[in-house]
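Hi team,

As requested, here is the filled-out complex form for the LLP run. I kept the field names the same as last time so the parser does not choke. Let me know if anything looks off before we queue the next batch.

— J.
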Amino acid sequence: MDHFHYTGDRLHCESIDVAAIADAVGTPTYVYSTATLTEHYRRIADAFRAIDPLICYSVKSCGNLGVCRTLGALGAGMDVVSGGEIFRARRAGVPASKLVYAGVGKTDAEIREALREGIFLLNVESEAEFENTARLAREMNVQCRCALRVNPDVDPKTHRYTSTGRKETKFGVDIERARAFFRAYGRDPHARLVGLHLHIGSPIYDTAPYVSAITKALALRDELLTEGFEVSVLDIGGGFAADYETGRSPDAATYAAAIVPLLAPAVATGLRIVLEPGRAIIANAGILLTRVQYVKQSGEKTFAICDAGMNTLLRPSHYEAFHFIWPTAPAPAFVPARRTEKPDMQGLVMHDVVGPICETGDFLALDRAMPPVARGDLLAVFTAGAYGMSMASRYNSVPLPAEVLVHGDRFEVVRRRETYADLVAHEA
Ligand code: LLP
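And here is what came back:
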């Protein structure tokens, strides 16, 4: 579900013709819909209401302050993975008491920051990190709440780069080591071990991996409770899918139908649940607007060369991820009914949609059927809100794009386009 729709033959975000945004702000530009991200957050909250989780939006998916403020105002906490993300979440007005902090390589400075802020939960990923956290908390004479990130060895059946819950990944501690971990560290007076954390990968299109990881975590919790340890929080991580192709991914209610019954009995006895969705909230709430600079033939191929590329949206070239791409003002016969890799229309032309970057791997789509495009056409890259701007780079010294947040019939530039001066601002 999202609020990007063709009205007549022009793409709108809520009530705004997206071409008006491109005219005012230029391209490439990320455009986010407030109504969409609000609705996605509420759907998750409603679906999981019976277990009243703390929903911590995953800042890494899109950390724009305008987006974080919108979610924070709805009551969301935030999942952060660096000192910079703690800073962002706090700057967006999210209380430290709603922050959960994961990451395998937290530096001393970052841990101190988390301790100073008094965040809700520090998700610890190794014995060495726990010892370091306990030392820093002792030195600062504070107490903090920690959860042990366990690796349940479950296959989330997703891209190998974003599969995080298999044994061979760098995340968390093997679940078999968790009891020994609690025995060694579970009674530390400064770093208080009070929970378990899971994050098995993303995106996960099936509920079964969640069921199997959560079942393992609950069994572990029972064992730990028997030994007298506190396990009052279970953070089940993120990974709910987004609708890259219409109708392909489960909705919040489908995940909840599998997960809530598993957790409800433990919640009834006082367990607090944390969710860390990123993509499911923001992916479909964002598009990337890019302008076709040139169309050219090479060999058998037709290239649509755009002003956005791997520097703007890395996902296609890094993960071979699919993003539906379509003109924002197509001829009436080409107004799309749905997002799909294989549009079913007469007269489409195969394109490689590529960027300006000096690499053959710089593409947004390969061999993609689209209406014929021409220089100057505006294209929308859909489902681009998550891991779009947050993974963008200044490669080839191309300034970072602008970000715009739409609210009904108005829009706001929530990050201005960078300038050449910005490119060199940090250099001597
Ligand atoms: N929690 C933790 C500990 C995570 O590492 C992540 C994502 C999330 C939550 C949120 O996952 P989500 O709900 O957004 O799927 N760059 C990749 C995705 C990397 C995900 C990293 N961790 C992509 O573009 O698909």
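Two things worth flagging: The first strand starts at residue 4 and ends at 7. The two ends are 47 Å apart (CA to CA).

Thanks,
J.
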